[in-house]
Amino acid sequence: MKKENTVSKIIFKVIIYIALIAMTISIIVPVLWVFMASFKRNAEFIGKGTNPWALPEQLQWQNYVTAFVDAEMGEFFLNSVIVTALALILLLVIALPAAYALSRFDFKGKKILNVAFMAGLFVNINYIVVPIFLMLSGANRMLGVDFFLDNRFILALIYASSSLSFSIYLLSGYFKTLPKGFEEAAYIDGCGYFKTMVSIMIPMAKPSILTVILFQFLSFWNEYIIAFTVMNEHNTLAVGLKNLMAVERTATNYGIMYAGLVIVMIPVLVLYICVQKQLTKGMTLGGLKG
User: Fold this and answer.
1) What tens digit of pLDDT does each residue of 35-48 get?
2) Which end of the chain is more exposed for a tag (fewer CB within 10 A), N or C?
3) Assigned CATH class of 64-279
4) Residue-wise pLDDT tens digits, 128-163
5) What's the Rg (C-alpha) of the chain?
6) Chief location of this protein (predicted)?
7) What is the pTM of this model?
8) What are the boundaries of each domain within the chain?
9) What is the number of H-type helices and E-type strands within the chain?
């Protein structure tokens, strides 16, 4: 019986490893191919007898220069950085106190707020992008200004507000797992509620906060529909990439098109490399003395 169990466990592990290796290859190979293709000349894509898997004959750094300068990807990149950074700051400033209060305190209306935030998990922001546009354009007409459309801060505010439900849900779930002894010790030392949250609880929730930052960064950075709808001159990188792909595909400038894809991917890869170790740390920071 024990021998059969051992054999079945080995077979199960082999199947799992094969599946994981296959998934890894299916993700890594396309990414490496895009990096490789971004350095190729057009003749290496459309010439007779060309091999799509062949290495570039010569590294065409000019593809990136053209994408940044001629296609204005540098400006789109800066807009995406500004919007994403603003959205993450707004999100954390609002979500952290809200999640802490909902998870650690009892007060009137708490159940209603919890239900409201949970209901927000089932609302897809892409389904209400038209009402958002009409609301912003109506505000412009009522006030006689051009502030609410093509504004990077407003776009960041929309991103942050649309991500509050998920972020609060994730953060409050982590706050609930932290022992109350940390707060009690802080209160004894004379810390108020705000100082306890900022100095004790938020540093202990670092793994959860990094998870929120990574997930929402990916969402904000790659978002297209809202940015395309409410922005005009200050387009983000996703909108710029779509325009670049449409132009370069028509002109058969595939190297420039793939260079634009790499420009979009690099920040995501760098962020993941920087925070991947922290994401695996699910333990609280510090401890209680016995």
Assistant:
1) 998 898 877 877 66
2) C
3) mainly alpha
4) 899 999 999 999 999 999 899 999 999 999 999 999
5) 24
6) membrane
7) 0.83
8) 64-279
9) 15, 0
